[in-house]
Structures are given as structure tokens and as C-alpha cells.
Amino acid sequence: MRHLLLSLLMLLAAPACAQDLAQVLDANRAQIEQPSRQTIAPVIEALAAAGPQAGAVLEAWADRRLGLADGRFVIVQGDEAVDAVTGAAVRGEVRVLRPNSGVRGIIGAALVQFQLSDPDPSRRAAALDAIARRSDETHLAALRAAGNDPDPALAVRKARLERLLTIRFDPDPQARVDAIEAFSGDTGADLQAVLNPLLATTRIAAPTIPGQANVAAELIPGDDIPQDEAYRLLVEAGLAPARLAPDAQKQALSAHIVEGTVGGVPVAELSDPARRDTAYDALAEVGLVPPAATAAEAEAALSGHRFADIYAEPNAQITDAARRALNAMALRQGAQQTADLALDALSLASIYFLAAIGLAITFGVMGVINMAHGEFIMMGAYTGYVVQTLIAGRTLSLIVALPAAFIVTFLAGVVLYRLVIRHLVKRPLETLLATFGLSIALQQIAKNIFGTQARPLTAPAWLEGSVGFGEIVSISTIRVAIFVLALMFLGLFLWIMNRTRLGLEVRAVTQNPGMAASMGINPDRIAMLTFGLGSGIAGIAGVAIGLFAKVTSELGSDYIVQSFMTVVVGGVGNIWGTLAGAALIGGLQKGIEVINPANTLAAQTWMILLIIIFIQFRPRGIMPTRGRAAEA
Amino acid sequence: MPAALKGKQKMRARTILCGAGLTLALSGAACAQEDTIRIGVLHSLSGTMAISETTLKDTVLMLVDQQNAKGGVLGRKIEAVVVDPASDWPLFAEKARELISVQGVDAIFGCWTSVSRKSVLPVVEELNGLLFYPVQYEGEESSRNVIYTGAAPNQQAIPAVDYMMNELGVESWALLGTDYVYPRTTNTILEAYLKGKGVGQADIFVNYTPFGHSDWSKIVADVAALGKEGKKVGVVSTINGDANVGFYKELGAAGISADDIPVMAFSVGEEELSGLDTANLVGHLAAWNYFQTAESPANETFVAEWTARMGEDRVTNDPMEATMLGFNLWVQAVEKAGSTETDAVLAAIGGLEVPNLTGGTARVLPNHHLTKPVLIGEIREDGQFDIVSQTEPVAGDAWTDHLPESAVLDADWPGKDCGMWNTQTNSCVQRQSNY
Amino acid sequence: MLIRKHPSVLVFLALLAVFTLAVTLMSEAYGSGVVPTSTVKTLGKTLCLALAAVAMDLVWGYAGILSLGHMAFFALGGYMIGMWLMYARTGEIVAATLASSPVPPTAEELRQGITGQIFGVVGSTDLPLTWSIAGSLPMQLLLVLAVPGLLAFLFGWLAFRSRVNGVYLSILTQAMTLALSLWLFQNDNGFRGNNGLSGLQNIPGLSHVPQSVISIWFLWASALLLAGGYLLATWLTAGKFGSVIRAIRDDETRVRFLGYPVEGYKLTVFTISAMICAAAGALYYPQAGIINPAELAPIASVYLAVWVAIGGRGRLYGAVIGAVVVSLLSSWFTGGRAPALDLGFYRIDWVNWWQVLLGLGFVAVTLFAPRGLSSLVDALAGLRPPRRRGADLGPDAGALREKEAEA
Fold first, then answer.
1. Interchain proximity A436–C302, CB inside 8 Å
2. Using CA atoms, how far apart are residues A395 and A380, in angstroms rounded to an integer?
3. Which of A5, B290, C56, C294 is least buried, going by the fewest C-beta atoms within 10 A?
4. B-proximal residues of A, 105-124, CB under 8 Å
5. Which parts of C72-223 are beta strand (E)?
6. What is the pTM of this model?
7. CB–CB of C122 and B185 under 8 A?
8. Shortest CB distance from C355 goes to which of B46, B82, B432?
9. Cβ proximity of B345 and B339 under 8 Å
10. Which of C40, C290, C291, C329 should we substitute to test contact with B (largest number of B Cβ atoms within 10 Å)?
């Protein structure tokens, strides 16, 4: 509504301009309806120049509120529409124009002049955003003209942008150098985005390097660039003849077959490359084909020319300053990247830990292999999804989903224990297979119930976004939450095991079931509860994993092998071992990803391979259980 | 094998099947309707690909029901034989053989992944079957026995990249894909294409992740870091299926909006978005030949029929349109040929036109691909797309012009009876497909 | 001698021969044509799977090593033969194309052409080093046994040496097959990534022979190989060697204390079993037509264990029965030909519910019939475990040694 008033006010103030606006709109109707980034710029300029109320039109256009009704341009405000030029209310079907984001960027840049001094801080911020995304020389002047911003945060941004634009557009080289040096100690991505283009180079080959060129580095063929590459540059610059390609040779030969021979060589012998060369040379001698460049000639051409990388920026002062600034950044940036990587690894480790902690209980404490563990994770995730469809508020639904997932998977675990696992005690390999059968069945049942599409499980708003430390080091909030959750479970596990009656009994049963039974503990009940607890935690892990990834029936099987490896690598029966295992696996995976960033798959492969080798040397894991219990 | 003999064998197989069926007290109905026309539906209903393929099975069944309501084809009802290759690639070949030689189907509608198509190819070529393949793919193939109703790279990838370059001003490219052949080949073509447009090697970042990848934080950070070069960064995503969910979530969490780094996806459609909270994705892009929001009467009818059959919350997508085009083309070709024999149908299908759902027509080209318009859509809050660009129908090119070795190749079945014709030497490289 | 001691072998071989003959006589190529080619291929493949199950039974049922990575060997065998099939077949096509040029091709051009055809689809132009002997059938046949054998030997040597056993070993083998499958998935490694090797059913040099005939040849080959593998496995398990490995299964420590080199025995049986698996795979994939890394997914190996368990482990014929019954049932249920079950309120489509049935059926077999389907055979043969009147079976209640010892 405020926009409407604004445009109405402007309309009253300047009736003469309204005429202009109407003319510009009409003259460029087709362009405005189907704008293309490459051709729209003049139209937008014309519009922007068509008086102050054009700002409202441009703004509406960028926000996809500008439409057409009965051939007139209208601005849509909620359910109403007003004529873009006269401001009169318009009835009827409105077809809203949908400029693409490239066009919107140009509109945003053009709007800067209207918005930079706007009383509304959010629009001033929008103007700064627009400049940050796409800037030209006019913005530098506009920024300087706009003066200081009353809002302190915006004032800081404005000053920074002004200095960045100075580096790029100021006509005075010294001002640019000063601006670069004023940033010393800064590692911002926006600064790098300004500095790096200054250091862009082109590679040239020439008889001599032009005197006025700002040379980045001279290149010596064979040392700095491969010989072939250098020769290719020469050929491209038209300074040397192209080498004879095998295909061209073959074509030349087949064009000169005379009575079954080429240059005296029988055709049948031409399957030998050496014979082909002989035939070609024979043809060249007679003058039927152009002679091929010999190795010596190529060598001479290379040594007769010079190769260099030349800066596009002609001023050496500026390139030097930019390079110094970037070099100074490199170290700090490296440290920050390492920190960011460590954070990533920590996050991955906490996810693996969360997925594996339930397993560490059932497998580690009870020695029961539950291959359906992954499906319990999946069950938890689906529980979260169902709760979210029933309860609208995301925070509330999450609060309900966590215990609900625990209860559902706890019960599932208890049922599984009573029906299957109890009968297979002491037959661990068969437990493994039976639970595997169950996992096949559960996966398919989930498919039959929920369908095969991934289901949404959305985090509440306060878990969206990311936590950042500086420009580079940042991590999404949901991952932090998972980390916290993992820590909580570690604490919970330790508390249950060391401070509760249940934990005492569990430890007793683990150490010596016979003796525990004779002391009045029901080993069967304890085992059942432990199994339920492990499964319940898997369910909660499912909700967490579903929040940051996806909910599908295959969710669990994606994690099962890694979970087992976490437990095995860490050492069975020791929660700290599981923690160490998760840290090792997460760290390894991220570490390898850095070495080969183009191929995540390779990282996973090598990670598994390293773990296999690791287990050869520490077959009982990082923290093995010692003493008699180890043999049980 | 002479056609007459083949027919006889089909009959015999049918009789055996009925015999076996009756001893098992199966429904006799299938056997009684001897004069139905059978088509095969070869889409995974279980396993990893079920997520995408089940929808296409339902689409074919809907189309069959509609056609039967109109009286079928050649006065006979159509009967769809549904099998489940279970996302298991060798099983695709086995089931295809079974469909053609045991069930005696006249056409197969099926396959999604390239590897499943490559698995089926030798079988349909050997048994002279007919496959309608409804998914966008990497090209570099043209088989006599396959009609490709999805997009070739020049009908999706190249126009999409052009759009990003021209309309969004992207200068630095991140090609992210799932590690399999479609992203690999598409990215190879795109790299060649971008370099041809003057983009340097340093401005192209390529990354491949496994199927179902969920740990995206590092890759998203890598992409964001590309912005340090001071060039506008754009992502071309050939990330497949579920993995997209985590990718977009991470992108949203990192606070990267479509205005900063636009993502152009080739494998994200309405179906995939229905599993996502789209709030963070608004403004990101997808390139297809069809969007549910396309404004045409034909599309409105199609969407209405689909939701009436499958439920209000179900969406339509590009491979569904391609399936529909394939089915309608097959019906027309059969009517025109007056027969369901593969050779007759293939002879009749060349040059046929059917209306597509975006308002134009799809024509069968000599290389067994279709003409298709290229649409670019921006993701909306409701999981649908705003169509921001639509081209005239583009002719599908089986062999891309942007790789030197395939630029010289051409496919022309009616004219040269060859799917791999070398235009330099004017000879047929091979008549069978390359699998 | 072997047969007199184990009459079941004779029965098995006779049944196999009768089966093969019957299929041949009903095939399209050599008989009435009642059995279509696709079924012949399925049956041929099933025989290969049965052999893989025998190999699995050898390590698990007899030596107590639950390997959850045996399909890795099976698939590796397939990859090795697939390399030759692909290279040689493409070579024929390329040679024919190049022959149209007036100048005869150089060896390098031929290689380039083949590389372009095989690897062009995955965007590579160089022939990987691993393919340098792909043109030679004898070499690749050697690799079929050598590569998986060596892998099994290395893996086993490392694992058994450091006394990794039981569940740990199972998970380690699973990790091995996962790592291998991820490695093969990468396009850069020269095995065509997810596309795998395809068109394997077209045998080089036999393009004029119809598939109906080739499928029968492969059926014969599979039957022969199964017979050979079965005999080998019987021979291994029958003698002293067999006694020792069964003893290792039942109490490894005790055998070690008795002075047997336990690791050597385990390594031998593991490697032999891997090689049998690989041979089966080398015959399986030309019938399947395509091989890709999904074949090595951990789940495939677990299925192998499931077959053996359902069939009855510790009995070679049990493994065969399990593999044949489950894989054929699987094929029937997913083929869409199984009639849907209408419960009135819900319609059970087997395409959707087969996996559930398989999974739960498997749990039931593990719980109630640890000896699997072969217990039916035993019942017919009048074999019964001795009545122990509740007495303990031995030091480990989980061991089924006495029941299994008779096989």
C-alpha cells in the first residue's frame, strides 16, 4: 500500500513526466513484455530517466508485480491493480510479466539511483545488494553522492562498497592502489572478487614482447609451458606452420594412390606408420603434397619466439598492489579453509556418530548384529515426516517428532528382539542374516506405504541458515544441531551406563550373564531394554538425518555400512571408541576430498580402503575391549 | 527371422503361457482376449529407480485406458503388460526379451537410465522390437528400433547454457553431476561447447558425486568460492534424484540465493520438488521440454486427467509428456500402417506429428528423435515452475556437433538406413547401435 | 571312490544332465521350441548362480567364514571376460569400417577406433592401461581366475593373518565389495563407470549364430561348469581337508592348538571359492548381456548368503537348491506374471510385495529351519539328526556341527 501511495504522490508532483513514462512504456512494449538481458539495458535506462515515478514501475517490474490488463501496464498490489502511468484502479484479468533474474539484476542496478537515498532502510539495503551483485561506473558516483547512511550497519557496507568500486572504477591509479592497500588484512570474498580480475592474464607468442605490455611472467618452452602447447600458440598466432596430423597424412596418401602404390610404397604396406612417412616424403619430394614441418624447424620456430603471460590491466602499480594483497591473504585464507574443513569433518563425524550410536549399543554392548539398524533410522525419519504432516507448527512438530520417533523405534526394537533375536542368541552370523531379511522387508514396506518419492522433512526456521565465523568458515545451523544432538546422546549414554540401575544391570549382563542372572537380574529383560534403547536412538538419529538430507526408504541403507565401520573401527563395546571411529572416518573422508575435489566417489573409495587396511593392523579397533570380556 | 515364422512362434508362446496359466488357475481373461494388441511397460517398480519410473508406468496405463475408451487401435483393445526390472540393469535385458518373445508385445514403453537403455538395446535390435524411450539423455546414439521421445543434449543442455550465458550473464561455471554416463557425457559436451564460446578451463569447475549423496557442505563451499574470481558463477546441475534434496538444502543453508548463484538443473522436475521444501529454491532454474504450468488446453486436460486418476497432490512432469508423445505417435503410426509389425510401424512413424502439451507439435525426425521446444523455468514457492523462456521446437540431434568425433556423424533411418552415418567418408559406420 | 562315499553327487549330476537335456530338447534351437530363448538364458544364468552359491557354501557352510563380498569375485570374473567380449566385438566393427578406406589401417588407428567406440560414450579418448591385453582371449581367460584369486588371496592373507574373524570379517568383506564397486563406478578408472560393459551377449566371431543357439551353448557350458565346480567342492570337503575346515568352523582355537595352520586352510578355501565364483561370473555375464558396478553392491552378496541359508548351508546341494529356487521365484514374482492376491480390503500385487515376502520368509527360515530347504531332502532320504534328549550339542550352542557333519 505504501508503494501505491508513493507512486501516487510522485504522480501528483510531476504530471509532465507521466507523459514521458507512458511514451517510453508504449514505445518499448514488446521488449518489456519479453525482455532479454542482452537488449533490455537501453529500455531500462530510458525508463529510469522518465521521471521519479518510473522507479515504482521498475520496482514493480523487478518484483514481478508489473502486468498487462487490456493492453495497459498495471502495477499489482495484493488483490488490486492500478494503472502504471495514471495510478487509476484497474479491473479485469491481469497478466503479470515475469522478467528473468538477469533482467531483474539490470533493473536492480538501474533502481540504485532511486533507492540509495530512500527513507526506508530495507530499500537502501536492496540498493546495496544490487550494487554488490552488479556494478558499473555510475554506481561509484552514486555511492559517493549519497553520502553517509544514518543506519550504522548500512553505513559500513556502503563505505566498503565505495572502496571496492574505487578499486575497480576510479580513474586515478593512485586512488585505486590506496584503496587496495586500505584493505590490508581483509580476506573477504567480495574483495577477492575485485582483486582477482585485475590479475587476469592472456598468453601470447610473439617475436618480441611489446614494450608497453604489463608482463606477468615470461615463459620458456619446455620449462614453464610444454613444447607442444608453445608450438600450438605459434600456430594459432600464424607464426609457424601446423604439424602434419596423422589423419591429414592418411587423406593425402589415399588421394595419391597410383596402381596400388603411393610414392612407390605398396598400399598393403601402409598399415605401418614408418612406411606411411616414407610414402609421404616421396610424395613431398615430387611436390604432390606440401612438405611436413620437421622437428628441427619446429625447434627453430620455438627458439625464435618469446612467450609470456600479459596482464589485461596495463598499470603495473595496480597489478603489483593487487598481487601483494592477494598473497598476504593466502596464508590467512589457508588457515580459514583448514578450519572450515575441520568443521565439515566434525559435522560428518557427528552424523556418522549419531547413526552409529544405536548400533554401538546393540552391537557393542550386546554383541547383536542388527542389519535392520538402518531401517530403524529410516523409520524414525518417516515418523518425523508423519508428525510433520499432522502438526503444522514446525518447531512444535519437531518437539513431538523426536520422542515419537524414539517410541516407535523403541517398540519396533523390542518386538524384533522378542520375536527374532532372542531365539538366535549365540548365533551371531544368523542374527545378522535374519535382521538383514527384515531390513529388505521393512524397506519394501516403507516403499509400499509412503511411495518411492523422497518425502519432505523440513527444519524449523531457527535451524535454517548457517553459523559463520568470518568469510570462509561457516557451517549450516542444522549441522550444528546434529553435533549438539550427538554430544547429548554421548552424555545420555554415559549417564545411563554409569549412573543408572539399568546401566549397572546392562554392564553386569555384558560381563557375565550367568552370574548376573543368579544375582536376580533378568538378562532377557535387560537385553530387550538395551536393544530397544539402541533402536530408539536410531529413530531419533533418523529424524536428524532426515532434516538435513532426505527421507526415502533407502535412507537407512545409505548409512549402514558406514555405521558398522564406525563401530568396528572404533572398537566394539566402547562408546569412546565409536566416537573415535566416527572422527577418523569423517576426517579421512574430508581429507581425501580435499586432495581430489572433483571426485567425491574416489574419496569414499579410498576411505573404505584405508579402513580395511587399518583393521588389518588394529583388528579390535582403536579402543579395543581388554581382558576376558574381549574373548566372550 | 522371417516375419511369418516369428508370428507363429509368438502364437505358440502365447498358447504355452495360457496353458501354464490355466493349470495355475489363473484368470482366463487374458487368454480369451486373443485379439488384443499388447504393449510392454518396462519401468522399474522397485529398487532405486522406482522413485521416478513408477510414475511413467502409471502414465502408460492411463493412456492405454484412454485409448481403449476411444475404441482401441485398429478396432482392437490395447493390453499393457507390466513387468518390474527392479532397477537391476541385466534384468532389463531379460525382461525385454521376455516381453518381446514370450509375451509377444508389439511395442515397449520403458527405461529411464542410460544404462538400462544400453542393456535393452541389443535385445530390441536382435528381436526387431520397438522401444519408446521417454527421458532426456546424453545423445550419441540412434537405433533403428528405438524412438527417443525425450530430449537430446541440444534440446536441453545447450539451450539452457545459452540462457545462462546470455540472460544471466554467467561467466564461471560449476558443472555438478551424479557420477554416471548422462552427466559425464553432458558435461563433456558442455565443456567443449563452453570452450568454443571462449570460456577458459579455469572457469569450469567439474564435480561428480555418487548416487544419493547427502554430504554437500564442502561442494557448496567450493562453488561459493568460485565467486572470488570476480565472475558471475552459475551451476549446471545434472545431479540425479534424491541427492538434489540435500544439495538444495545445503545451498539454502549457506544463504546462496538464485540471484547470487543460479542453479540450472536438468534432472529436477515437479516430481522431485514435491519432496522438498521449496522456500529456499525459489528462483533457481530447470530446463525441460515441458512444465506442468505450460499454458495450453491440451495440458490442462492432461493434468486434470492425471490428478483425477492419481490424486490431487500428484504432479505431471517432462518424462510423462514424452511418454504421452511416444504413445500417441505409436497409435498414429499403427493406424497409418494398418499393422503392428515393427517394420511397418517404423516405416509409418517417420515424419508423423502429434500435438505436444506446450502448444506446438512434435515431429518424428529421420534420426528417431523428436522436435521439441526448450523451456526454462524458475522454481516457485509452490514447487511449480514459472516459464521464463520458451523456444520454437528444436530438432533433436542424435550426434552432438560440439565434439569433433561425433560432429561428422549423422543418423538417417528412412533415407540411408543407418544410425551412424559418417558425412565425411559418406559411409555407414555401423548399422547396429553402439552399446 | 568319491561317488561311492557320496551318492548324492551322482544323483545331483544325473539330475543336472537330465535337466540340461530336457531344456535342450525343448529349446527353440535344438528342439520343439516350448522353452523360449529368454527362459533358456534365465536357466543358464541360474546354473551360474547355483555355482556361486556352491562356492559360498564352501566358505560359509564348511569353513564358517561368512563372506558378504563374494559377488565381488563373481562380478570381477564377469568384468574380465566382458573386457575381451567388448574389445573383440568392437574390433570387428572398427576393422570393417576402416576397411572401406583405400589405405589399410595401422595398428594404432585400429586401437584408436576401438577406444573411441568403447570409451567415447564416457568421454575418454585413451585406452586405459588395464585394457592393454583385452584383445587376447587366453590372457583375459587367465585373468578371470587370476584377478579375483589374487584379490581373495591378498584380502584373506591380510584378514586371516591378523585374526579378523566372525562378524568383523563379514563387515570387512562387505566393505571390500563396496569399495570395489565405488571404484568401478568412477568413470576415470577405465571400466566405463556406471554404464559398465554391455552388449556382452554378442559373441565376437559368432555374429551369424542366432541367440537361440548361443543361449543353449551357454546353458551347456554352465551345466558343465556347475558339475565341475560341484565335484571339486565335494572332493575338497570330503577328505581330510574338509574335516579340518569344518573343525575350524566349529572351534578355530582348538584346531590351532592341535597344530594345524588354520590361516593357511582358511586362505586356501577362501581363494578357491573366490575363483569358482569368478568362473561362474565369467559364464553368467555373457548371458546377462551387461555388467556394471551395481552388480558388486553389498546387497548382491548378502543375497548370495540368503540363497545358501534358505537352501541349507553345510550341504552343497542345499546351496544349489537355494539359489535355483529363490532366483527363479524372484524372477517369476517380479515378472508380473504372479497372480495378485485379493484380500478384499487390500490387493496384494506381488511386484510390490515380493521383497517383503522374501525378507520375512528369510527370517522365518533362519528361525525355524536353520538347515533350510535341504532338510526336506534329508527327510526324504531318511536322514535324521540323532536324538540327544536335550543334551548340549557342545561347547557352543550355536554350532550345528553334528547336524551338518553328515553331508
1. yes
2. 17
3. A5
4. 105
5. 197-198
6. 0.84
7. yes
8. B46
9. yes
10. C290
Q: What is the pLDDT of residues A72-81, one digit of tens each?
A: 888 888 778 8
Encode A201-219: b = buried (16+ Cβ within 10 Å), e = exposed.
beebbbeeeeeebbbbeeb
Q: Give the pLDDT confidence of A175-232 residue by residue, as tens digits.
A: 888 888 888 777 788 888 888 888 888 888 888 888 788 888 888 888 888 888 888 8
Report the alpha-carbon distance of residue A503 to residue A499 in Å, rounded.
7
Mean pLDDT (whole number) for A384-409: 92
Tell me how far apart the alpha carbons of residues B75 and B36 are, in angstroms, rounded to a whole number: 9
Question: Which of A51, A28, A52, A23 is CA-nearest to residue A41?
Answer: A28
Average pLDDT, chain B: 86
From residue C28, alpha-carbon distances to C17, C24, C202, C218 in Å are 19, 8, 18, 14
Q: Is the dihedral of CA A56, A58, A59, A61 positive or negative?
A: positive
A100 contacts B389? CB cut-off 8 A: yes
Note whether B172 and B433 are within 8 A (CB).
no
Q: Is B180 on the interface with A (CB under 8 A)?
A: no
Cβ pair C34:B16 closer than 8 A:
yes
> How far does Cα C306 stand from its chain's mean position?
13
> What is the average pLDDT across A10-39?
72
Report pLDDT digits (tens) over C26-46.
998 888 888 888 889 999 999
User: Considering Cα of A547, then A549, then A554, then A559, what sign does the dihedral take?
Assistant: negative
Domain architecture of chain B: domains with CATH: 3-152+296-371 (3.40.50.2300), 154-295+377-390 (3.40.50.2300)
Q: Is C201 on the interface with B (CB under 8 A)?
A: yes
Of B167, B207, B262, the CB nearest to A597: B207
Alpha carbon distances (Å) from C339 to A440, A564, B65, B215, B298? 22, 39, 21, 42, 37
Quick one: closest CA in B to C355, which residue? B46
- C-alpha cell at position C311: 537352501
Kindly list the partner chains of chain A, i.e. chains with 3 or more CB atom pairs below 8 Å.
B, C
**A564: nearest CA partner in chain C:** C171
Q: Which chains touch C (3 or more CB pairs under 8 A)?
A: A, B
Q: What is the ipTM of this complex?
A: 0.83
Question: Between residues 46 and 85 of chain B, which touch chain C (CB distance below 8 Å)?
Answer: 46, 81-85
- Tell me the pLDDT tens digit for each residue of A585-607: 888 888 888 887 777 778 888 88
Residue B16: pLDDT band with limits 50, 70, 90: very low
CA distance C229 to chain B (A): 24
Three cell numbers, residue A30: 514488446
DSSP bridge partners of A266: A261
Q: How far is C367 from chain A (nearest CA, A)?
A: 7
Name which of C189, C194, C88, C99 is nearest C137 in CA terms. C88
Per-residue pLDDT tens digits for A307-360: 888 888 888 888 888 888 888 888 888 888 888 888 889 988 998 998 888 888
Q: Which residue has cell 520403458?
A: B110
Minimal Cα distance from C371: which residue of A?
Answer: A430
Residues in chain A with CB shorter than 8 Å from the CB of B217 are 344, 347, 475-476, 479
End-to-end CA distance of chain A: 76
Tell me whether B380 touches chain A (CB under 8 Å): no
State the burial class of residue A57 (Cβ atoms within 10 Å of its Cβ: 0-12, 13-18, 19+).
Answer: buried
CA angle A7, A13, A18 (to 5 degrees): 65
Q: How far apart are CA C311 and CA C300, in angstroms?
A: 17
Tell me, what amino acid is at A570?
A: G
Residues of C in contact with B61 (CB under 8 A): none
